[in-house]
Design goal:
Helices cover 26% and strands 40% of the residues. By secondary structure, it is α+β, with helices and mostly antiparallel strands. It is elongated. The termini are far apart. Pfam families: DUF3006.
Length: 70
């Protein structure tokens, strides 16, 4: 299952899953250098950063913002 890092609250990362549910995960259980908006995949108890998907989503958001403020 995939999710997006929604926010950080102290030592906890709040992750919005693709089914629109939210889960809390200890930051120590996440890949290093993770940030808000990053796409992650939860697979077999491991959390992996989806680098290409994160770049694609961030670029899509940037493109939409550019359109809005033209």
């Amino acid at each position: 299952m995939k999710g997006i890092i929604d926010r950080f609250e102290g030592d906890i990362a709040v992750i919005e899953l693709e089914n629109n549910e939210f889960i809390d995960v200890n930051i120590s259980d996440l890949p290093k250098n993770i940030s808000t908006g990053d796409v992650i995949e939860l697979l077999d108890g491991k959390i992996n950063l989806c680098i290409d998907e994160t770049k694609h989503k961030k670029q899509a958001i940037e493109d939409l913002m550019d359109e809005l403020f033209e």
